[in-house]
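Input (structure):
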C-alpha cells in the first residue's frame, strides 16, 4: 500500500516537474522563481498528492471489503458480527482510558484527541509516511491505515478518533497515559524512539540528566540488574553479601542482590560482580533468558544463528540464550552480525526490553 501511494505521488511530481521544464525550455529567457516553486507550485503539488493518496486509500479499502464479501456502502454496528462496525466514510468515535479499538485490515483512522498507542499489528502513518510499531504513540491529526488487523488502546481520560472501514470498540483496563519524552537527544524519527518511550513511560530507565537519555552510552552491569528489578515490579529484597563489591545502600544494591539471589546473574569470580563493567549483548540475552525461565515463560522458541557471519563468536554458555533471543525477535543482527561480545548501548537495551515485553504479551 505504501509503495502504491508513494509511487503515485512520485509519478505526479515527475509529471508536474516535466511540464514545468518543458515550459521553461520553450521560453529560454523565462526563469521559474524560487518563490513560485516554494509557494504556489509546492502547495498545489501537496494538494494533488493528498487527493491521489485519498483515491488509492479508498480503492484499497473497497477491495478489502469486497474480498470479505461486504458492501462498501454498508454501515452500522454488528455488520459481520462480533461487535464490528463497518462504514465507507469516517465516523466520529469517543472513548476513555483503557478502551480497546480493533481496526480491521485496510481500514482508516484519524486520531483527533487524547492519547492512544498501538498494542499490536502494523499501522501505517499515511501523514508521516512511516509505520507505527507496537508500543508507538498516535499523533493527533494524523491519518492511519491498518496494514493488518490492529489493536489500539486509548490512554487518556478522554480520547477521540475518526474511523472508516471495519472496527470494534471494547472496554478494557485503564493504562498509564503515555508521557512525552523530555529528552532532547532522542529524535522522533530515531530507530529507538519508541523503545526509549517504552522504558521511560514504564519507569524502567531514567535519563542521564533531566533532558538527555544518552542513547549511545554503554550499559553497565549494575544498570542492567536495576532495570530488570524494576521490570519485575521492584520485589522486596533482603540484603546479603552475595557479592563482595555490592555494598548495601547504593542505588544499584537491591537490583543486583535480587538478580543474584534469583539466579539471573552470576559474578565474575572471586566473589565479585564487577558492577561498573559494560554488559555485552550476549550477556543481556542470557540474563533475559534466565529471567524468562524464572518467571515461568516458555523459552522453547529457538532460531539458528548460523546465518550471522560472526556466529562462531557466540560462547557455549550463551548459545541457548542467543538462539532463543533471535527466535523470539528480541535480538536482531546488525549488518549481518550478532555482535555477541559488543558492549550494549542504552538504546539497544531499551529495544531488547521493549521486544521482550511484547514477546511476553503474546
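Output (sequence):
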Amino acid at each position: 500500500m505504501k509503495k502504491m501511494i508513494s509511487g503515485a505521488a512520485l509519478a505526479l511530481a515527475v509529471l508536474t516537474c516535466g511540464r514545468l521544464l518543458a515550459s521553461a525550455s520553450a521560453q529560454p529567457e523565462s526563469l521559474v522563481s524560487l518563490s513560485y516553486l516554494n509557494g504556489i507550485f509546492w502547495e498545489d503539488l501537496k494538494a494533488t498528492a493528498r487527493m491521489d493518496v485519498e483515491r488509492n486509500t479508498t480503492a484499497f479499502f473497497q477491495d478489502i471489503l469486497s474480498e470479505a464479501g461486504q458492501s462498501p456502502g454498508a454501515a452500522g454496528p454488528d455488520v459481520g458480527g462480533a461487535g464490528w462496525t463497518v462504514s465507507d466514510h469516517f465516523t466520529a468515535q469517543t472513548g476513555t482510558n483503557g478502551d480497546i479499538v480493533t481496526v480491521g485490515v485496510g481500514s482508516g483512522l484519524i486520531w483527533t484527541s487524547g492519547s492512544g498507542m498501538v498494542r499490536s499489528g502494523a499501522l501505517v502513518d499515511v501523514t508521516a509516511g512511516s509505520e507505527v510499531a507496537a508500543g508507538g504513540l498516535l499523533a493527533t491529526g494524523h491519518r492511519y491505515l491498518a496494514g493488518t488487523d490492529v489493536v489500539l488502546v486509548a490512554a487518556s481520560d478522554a480520547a477521540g478518533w475518526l474511523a472508516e472501514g471495519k472496527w470494534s470498540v471494547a472496554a478494557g483496563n485503564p493504562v498509564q497515559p503515555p508521557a512525552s519524552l523530555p529528552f532532547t537527544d532522542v529524535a522522533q524519527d530515531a530507530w529507538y524512539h519508541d523503545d526509549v518511550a517504552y522504558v521511560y513511560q514504564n519507569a524502567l530507565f531514567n535519563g542521564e540528566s533531566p533532558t538527555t537519555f544518552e542513547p549511545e552510552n554503554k550499559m553497565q552491569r549494575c544498570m542492567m540488574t536495576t532495570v530488570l528489578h524494576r521490570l519485575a515490579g521492584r520485589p522486596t529484597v533482603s540484603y546479603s553479601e552475595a557479592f563482595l563489591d555490592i555494598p548495601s545502600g547504593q542505588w544499584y544494591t537491591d537490583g543486583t542482590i535480587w538478580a543474584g539471589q534469583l539466579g539471573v546473574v552470576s559474578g565474575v569470580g572471586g566473589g565479585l560482580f564487577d558492577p561498573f563493567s559494560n554488559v555485552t549483548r550476549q550477556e543481556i540475552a542470557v540474563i533475559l533468558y534466565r529471567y524468562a525461565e524464572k518467571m515461568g515463560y516458555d523459552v522453547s522458541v529457538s532460531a539458528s544463528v548460523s546465518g550471522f557471519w560472526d556466529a562462531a563468536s557466540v560462547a557455549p554458555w550463551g548459545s541457548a540464550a542467543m538462539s532463543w533471543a533471535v527466535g523470539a525477535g528480541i535480538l536482531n543482527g546488525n549488518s549481518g552480525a550478532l555482535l555477541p561480545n559488543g558492549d550494549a548501548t542504552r538504546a539497544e537495551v531499551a529495544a531488547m526490553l521493549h521486544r521482550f515485553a511484547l514477546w511476553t504479551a503474546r
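Notes: The chain has three domains: 2-67, 76-170, 193-360. The longest strand covers residues 159-170.
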